[in-house]
Amino acid sequence: DAMVIQNPRYQVTQFGKPVTLSCSQTLNHNVMYWYQQKSSQAPKLLFHYYDKDFNNEADTPDNFQSRRPNTSFCFLDIRSPGLGDAAMYLCATSRDRGVNTEAFFGQGTRLTVV
Amino acid sequence: AQSVAQPEDQVNVAEGNPLTVKCTYSVSGNPYLFWYVQYPNRGLQFLLKYITGDNLVKGSYGFEAEFNKSQTSFHLKKPSALVSDSALYFCAVRDKDDKIIFGKGTRLHILP
Fold first, then answer.
1. Angstroms from B107 CA to nearest CA on chain A
2. CATH fourth-level superfamily of B3-111
């Protein structure tokens, strides 16, 4: 059974047109992450939530926003996608804070900007 | 800052042979290390982790990893490679701010 679900799997959007990617989890985990991954590179952390506490990475562009309305759902909003934002976006969860807990990843959403 | 390094972009191994994917780490304090695997167009799957205890950690799909404190390494190993092991492998470290920091990845090719 899927535990971290990302929708859609593939998203095509127009240059400059706002787009939202969604992530849901059935694990009741406190921590949720959004990563950007380009061309088989290492995933790059954009931001993460511990419960409702939002933590933005210093180098995450303002163009990227996130919402977590409840424990189960987390959204990634790209306000004005550029061609350079085309990538795989990965959502992940972790049970709690603590360095010994692994992350569980969704299947990812591949974003194409045309 | 915590970091991990994967010195090889690609590793080729013949099916049935043992495989090793290398990872070294740089951390302040105790290291908390992970290996993940990624198949094409998929998310990452957790393989194993080292927190404390035995230096040899066993994980999913027959993989294991050896923690070596003196060499600051955490190499991923498997005694007998399968073609289905071909994938992208990431070493990762967890830091005190709940972040998971990934290495650049190593593409593993198992040759039939």
1. 9
2. Immunoglobulins (2.60.40.10)
Residues sharing a CB contact under 8 Å with residue B59, sequence separation 6 or more, in sequence order: B35, B47, B48, B49, B65
Dihedral sign of CA atoms A78, B103, B83, A93 in order: negative
Overall average pLDDT of the A40-58 stretch = 91
Chain B contact residues (CB < 8 Å to A): 30, 32, 34, 36, 41-46, 49, 51, 88, 90, 94-105, 107
* Superfamily (CATH) of domain A4-113: Immunoglobulins (2.60.40.10)
> Given an 8 Å threshold on Cβ–Cβ distance, is A43 in contact with B90?
yes
DSSP string, A44-66: EEEEEEETTEEEE-TTS-TTEEE
The residue among A39, A31, A32 whose CA lies nearest residue A86 is A39
Query: Beta A10-13 vs A109-113: how paired, if at all?
Result: parallel
Partners of residue A6 on adjacent β-strands: A23
Q: What are phi and psi of A86, to 5 degrees?
A: -65, 125
- Which pLDDT tens digits describe chain B residue by residue (112 residues)? 789 999 999 999 999 999 999 999 998 888 899 999 999 888 899 999 998 888 999 999 999 999 999 999 999 999 999 999 999 999 999 877 778 889 999 999 999 9
Write the CB contacts of A39 (distance below 8 Å, at least 6 apart in sequence): none
- Flag if B41 and A110 touch (Cβ within 8 Å): yes
